[in-house]
């Protein structure tokens, strides 16, 4: 009798621009075998950010691709794609990567690229999400994890986590509350992907062969 084939460990590249708390959560989850994958490369568009230090301390290859070196977006994204191809990456994880990616790049990683965004999408794509939630008098905020398509912060949602907004909150306090949710939510979603349980098909996210609703998994 032969045993079922184990799922081969996936090769992940994480793209960052800054502090890298989500990167750290993913590094820890891989190191503890919660996620069946290896982070083989961390790319930043900014030099000397904390996320690069975290990657180096974990023994992960790092690269900095600065926008100044590639004034044309298409050239930047080609350099990025070439680098990821060198590492035979299965999954691209955007973890606070503050650049818009070209359609060509997005198509190359169709169904194989995830993003985390600090709002309950489709509310507040783009920047300053927490201040915008405060200004609108919202009573809750959160994070959204979604597949990346060429619509900014607009791909199919996989999972959202909600937090309350209190009367005396400021944007920084909400950001911290949301971030604490991000650090458990993102590893869970990446784990699903690496177990071949999560796919994108027909412009929807599917988990365990079931299409997820417009707000993703476990939303009301
Ligand atoms: C996270 O809050 C993430 O949701 C946000 O950047 C932060 C990165 O934090 N992403 C975006 O705003 C993307 N539109 P980190 O560097 O500590 O992981």
UniProtKB/TrEMBL annotation:
Q: Which reaction does it catalyse?
A: N(1)-(5-phospho-beta-D-ribosyl)glycinamide + (6R)-10-formyltetrahydrofolate = N(2)-formyl-N(1)-(5-phospho-beta-D-ribosyl)glycinamide + (6S)-5,6,7,8-tetrahydrofolate + H(+)
Which residues are recorded as binding (6R)-10-formyltetrahydrofolate? 73, 98-101, 115
- Name the pathway: Purine metabolism; IMP biosynthesis via de novo pathway; N(2)-formyl-N(1)-(5-phospho-D-ribosyl)glycinamide from N(1)-(5-phospho-D-ribosyl)glycinamide (10-formyl THF route): step 1/1
Q: Which GO terms describe its cellular component?
A: cytosol
Q: Which GO terms describe its molecular function?
A: phosphoribosylglycinamide formyltransferase activity
Q: Which InterPro entries match?
A: Formyl_transf_N, Formyl_transf_N_sf, GART, GART_AS
Q: Which UniProt keywords apply?
A: Purine biosynthesis, Transferase
Q: Which family does it belong to?
A: Belongs to the GART family.
Q: By what name is this protein known? A: Phosphoribosylglycinamide formyltransferase
List the source organism: Celerinatantimonas diazotrophica
